[in-house]
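Recap from last week: sequence in, structure out.
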Amino acid sequence: MFEDAESVAESVAEARRRCTAGDPAEALILGRDLHWASGSDAVREAWANELLVMAYRALDRWSLAGIAQAHHRHRALPAVDVLMSRG
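Predicted C-alpha cells:
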C-alpha cells in the first residue's frame, strides 16, 4: 500500500487539505495506517504523527493529540507507560 512514496506524499497532502477544510477523517485514518506501517521510516513516522495530531485537534480531542505526540517521541520504548501517572 505504501510502496509508492510519491503517492503517499500526495495522500498526506490531501488528508491535510481535507482536515484543514473541516473533515479530519482522512487524516485520522491515514495517520493511523502510517503509524503502524511506517517500518521505522522517519518520514512516514513524522507524517503519521502530524496527521494524527491534526485530526485529534480538529475533533477537539486534545488529550488524544497529546498522547499521539508522546507516543511519537517515545516510539522506541517497548510500552507507552510513560503516559501513566507515577504518584
